[in-house]
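User: Could you write out the 3D structure of this protein bound to adenosine monophosphate? I've included everything you need below.
Assistant: Certainly. Input first, then the structure.
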Amino acid sequence: MSLRFYNTLTQELEEFSPAEGKTVRMYTCGPTVYHYVHIGNFRTFTFQDILRRTLIARGYVMDHVMNITDVEDKIIRNAMAAGQTLKEYTSQYTQAFLDDSALLRLQRPERLVFATEHIDDMAAAIGKLAASSHTYVSEGSTYFRIGSFPEYGKLSHTNFSGNIAGARVQVDEYDKDDARDFVLWKAQKPGEPGWETPLGPGRPGWHIECSVMAMKYLGETIDIHTGGVDLIFPHHENEIAQSEALTGKRFVRYWMHAQHLMVEGQKMSKSLGNFYTLRDIVERGYQPESIRYLLASSQYNKQLNFTFDGLKAAATSIERLRNFDLRLKNDRLAAGLNAEMEERSARALADFHAGLDDDLNTADALAAIFEYVREANTALDAGQFLAGNVASAGRLLAEFDAIFEVLKPTGTAGSLSDAEIAGLVEERAKAKKSKNFARADGIRNELLEKGVVLEDTKDGVRWKRK
Ligand code: AMP
Ligand code: ZN
């Protein structure tokens, strides 16, 4: 069977293939770094990780871009209140996001790009939109004129033609020609940071950053764009309007959106205050891989209710798989090969992949694994699982773990001596000095995996065990 994804744009399950060759050009809306990211956000980032890993397992090569939104109203407000520059303020939360992502074993996208490093690209794109009459200026800010893009609403499947006239009542309040027009460039207010560009002093709106960075690195038409469902409207609708108004080409071939992580019937969100960060969960004694498993184990397009009972059940599921893995390694097995068990493992492997192929139905994929493990454990107890059956069982677990990656426990993956840690810390400092940031990040992540946290202080790097 082939890989199929539900496309929000067409509202259909579609067979997936990239536009060109084996490379998948994918864009993910990353976090706004004004706070610690919560595990609701991480549900969406975990879905993207499962998506990446499935594509890689199918032989594709990823070119995946994720942005970091490091300029935005709340960031500016908080940085000013803390007496810090934007960069000082955001870099701590960017690093926390990367550390948490590493603890959750999320593969790092091929490119991580920062909004503040692309201001000129954004100003140029807005200039082009202005030249083709898609914008207007009001009190120094530049807006996108939605009426200039007749297909507006095609992603969220909303018909705006009636709403637009009705919305005019609000025009004065929003200072826009149409209440749904959105800002591309915000005029600088006294005391706020801003950039000098041909658009006047100011800063970009949120929507333009994703269009510009996606197209800069991935081309005018990209294969997959992901995010949570709350981004469909207006953010992704606006991304389409800006990008397609600029190029006249389809912006994204497959739009994929993760449903929310819920708490007692409500979306987990910063504004409702009903959220947990990964740090909160780890402090309560849970392993990061339990939360990874919980977030990954139900299909991304269904809402998932967060409970601590669910988290405990996730830990138990991982334990069952680890115990089975240990039995494969340690049980004394009679020689020979049980043909029936071979058939069972082949079927489980096929069902596992068929589940993933079916729009990343991780629940079905996991059911195939657990059914096999239950039967194999029974066969082991009865002496019917033979030495010759170990290889195919091991392969099944390996292919499972290439996607879910929960078998290796955090912090016990080979403990390091103080001298070894000090050696790695020194190597990281040297790598940073010679601008080998990939190696420096790699060492930070390797240490994190082994339960060692690094803190950059004024006197250099300090480390501690978790
Ligand atoms: P933000 O930093 O608010 O832009 O969010 C980062 C990502 O997390 C976006 O893709 C959001 O759609 C997603 N997100 C926010 N809240 C939740 C939630 N409760 N469950 C799943 N995804 C979420
Ligand atoms: Zn975005």
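The radius of gyration is 25 Å.
User: Perfect, thank you.
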